[in-house]
Design goal:
Shape: globular
Distance between the termini: 31 Å
Radius of gyration: 16 Å
Number of helices: 6
Order of helices and strands: EHEHEHEEHEEEHH
């Protein structure tokens, strides 16, 4: 619960994946046959009582595997696109599964999005990263990255928790028309 992780959804394939498995969600029961002992299906059913889960995956390249291994339940995930936050959610569980990746997003010539994270139902909506937010967020994100410890400390110092930052700092508690403008 100490990490803030950002993932880029700028790429066309990644953006399509995001629409299918994060914005719309996936029927949990279609995935359970592919989940072995790595994670508890019963926990997933408890996390998703409506039967619809939100899932994100990254490819194993660069530092992705080490970041994914360090990711823990309760960590904040921020989806980034074109100098804006597109979603905010929290990690529930994770699994390293090429077969689940293929089921969710199909085969990809560049490699499976096998480092998978089950997340709570996200806050969705475009929140531009304006200059006042640079104390808390990086102005650019490529791939999958962890927010620096300094920026995490700034968030916790100024907002008290990541949850309050999401609700008030990113203005997900406010109607879209009241959010940050450039």
């Amino acid at each position: 619960m100490d990490n803030v992780l950002m993932f880029s959804i700028d790429d066309g394939t990644v953006r399509a994946n995001f629409g299918v498995t994060v914005e719309k969600g996936v029927e949990l029961e279609t995935l359970t046959p592919l989940i072995r002992e790595e994670i508890s299906v019963e926990d997933l059913r408890r996390f998703y009582p409506d039967g619809k889960c939100c899932v994100w995956g990254v490819q194993d390249r660069g530092d992705s595997l080490s970041l994914w291994k360090a990711m823990a339940q309760g960590d904040l995930l921020l989806g980034y696109r074109h100098r804006s936050i597109q979603c905010a959610s929290y990690v529930l569980m994770k699994i390293n599964s090429p077969s689940l990746s293929d089921r969710l997003w199909g085969k990809n010539a560049e490699g499976a999005f096998r480092l998978i994270c089950f997340m709570d139902h996200p806050h969705l909506g475009e929140v531009s990263i304006v200059p006042q937010m640079l104390r808390y967020l990086e102005p650019d994100c490529r791939g999958f990255a962890r927010l620096s410890p300094e920026k995490c400390r700034n968030i916790l110092s100024d907002y008290g928790s990541f949850e309050v930052f999401v609700r008030l700092g990113l203005l997900y508690d406010f109607p879209f028309s009241f959010r940050h403008s450039e």
